[in-house]
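Sharing a chain and its predicted structure for anyone who wants a worked example. Both blocks are below, sequence first, tokens second.
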Amino acid sequence: MFDDYVASNEDLDTIAEGINYVWKPELNYIFKEKSRIENTAVISYDSSNIYLFGYKKDIEKIPHQIKIPEKELRGWNTGIYFEELNSYLPRIIVESSRNALPRISGPLLKPMLETQKNRKRNPNAYTTKESYLATIVHEFGHVYYNSFGRWYFSNLENNLMYMNLALALFENRKRISDLKIQLPTDYSVSEIFAFCTDYSASSLFWTKHKKDIDKMQAADIKNAIKKEREIDLNEEDSYLSDNKMGHHLRAAVLGRILIDKYPKEWPNKLLELNTL
């Protein structure tokens, strides 16, 4: 359907608009340390060009000769899962780690909305311009959370401190002082953080999309409850697991509760979830 599609001004302006929402002061309680996201490379594409965006940066256009699969038009990702793009992107993006140079990528406005409508999912909260803007904010939520590396022992200074302290204790040279220990958490917490980010932003800026999310997630959760009642959790995985309805359902279920319980504190709660 979009084999010959070329980006419109609205397509490009909407991506820039989505990026700018991340820097709105209303979201400062989520994105407290802007330095963690300010260099994020935002990548989109049409039938003939790749478009590079960044906060307060001019759009860079790179010609390509790739046939874009329809599955790459459904939504945005943290990273570049459409590997063919890498042969056209600047080397600094391709060769840098995700931590050193974060990147998000996804389709333009019209292709994404039309592709979502063609999925025949009912209800589907991702068929409006508001939902597109929220999706970009969602991906920045991933970038921000991921920058802390909470799912592995990512801080060399802390790792050496733990080891040296443990060594001193085993050798009876030192006693524990006031110390915070950070244990790795499941990577799926990133999805909860991203859900909370776009749902909170939608509650502030895109009330129609927020209502669409409520309707869609309520339908998905009702379906999951019905199925969950019929399984033996000693033999099967919950429908909150990746093997069943997956991390997006889990993020919506736990994220919505977190937002209600900690309206402004949920970012800190999730970032300190692994701290003892």
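Comments welcome. The first helix runs from residue 9 to 22.
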